[in-house]
């Protein structure tokens, strides 16, 4: 009898505590489903996420940087703020039109993977890949125990994406949406809130995915964003064609050059220097394995530094994004590119002819250049290591071709992904690459 009374009292106390816990959950008001977020010192997002009445909770995955900061969640008529820490969740409610309660959560939790093994200690894991003629890192995987899906690994993308081909294979449930702004327009993309991703023996639960219809513009089924590895050290060995995921920084890094990187809401950025034969121009560039070209320079950066008409012209290219419209690029031969202490001559680069700005930075460095280095990215400590590999001996081909697709992804607030697709023509010719360490 005494035991039964204790159980009843315990249950009663739990019920009381639950009531108080529910009463302490903050509530904000809204008249529309569109919301925006200010993360730390970054400006308020100019894109919009959406409240979802049928998903409990709808999770807004903000940047997973190792920083304590203030995050403000805005509706059209109200706001709520949280002092967030890494690897935490913050629950609240939004009362929509004074009648519908939407359950929401701000998350700084990194979706770390697991393996189906008992008491196994994860120190490092390998994922094989193929390096396609499109310069992309192709990885085979599954979503929700589907048939095989062909992904590309994109260090410029902050979420995982399925395109029209991948959606047909995985048949994911689309239960939300997000606005996206690309260089060529504004789009509304559909999202899927909770999925199982499998790459080799590695699995991720409750993973958010974005669906984007590229209308056959890229030869793949989906994109793997860097967000699934933000708590790890990622090694890209282009020679062995292995992605090696470490829990800690490897101890043997002989021959690598090190640089501090910027890893924020817009992605991972490295410093590089362009030399047009007269002067050095140093800026921050998106480190983008999801980009198939060498270097793309933004129009505002080129204009501010007077780079137009200062280098050998190789032709023109057209660029379009995940939206309407397109703009032109000049293809020029850069006399010298300086990267992580290395100098690479005669690099064909694309300079935007418009005043388009790439995330407020100098531009993008794509995988046609990055594949010539073996790479180690220490995401938790925001550092990167590069070492030239045997692919450095390959020439940059400048021959005519109808088109070559480039996908550029950015990190997002919540499930936002901006993907750009660049089409460009190149002249017949080739140049041999020689590089030197400064």
UniProtKB/TrEMBL annotation:
The keyword NAD does not apply. The lineage of its organism: Bacteria, Pseudomonadati, Bacteroidota, Flavobacteriia, Flavobacteriales. The keyword Hydrolase applies. The chain crosses the membrane at residues 406-424. Its EC number is 3.4.23.-. It comes from Flavobacterium paronense. Keywords: Hydrolase, Membrane, Signal, Transmembrane, Transmembrane helix. Residues 1-21 form the signal peptide. InterPro entries: Peptidase_aspartic_dom_sf (IPR021109). Gene3D superfamilies: Acid Proteases (2.40.70.10). It comes from the Bacteria. This is Retropepsin-like aspartic protease. It is an enzyme of class 3 (hydrolase). It holds the Pfam family Asp_protease_2. GO terms for molecular function: hydrolase activity.
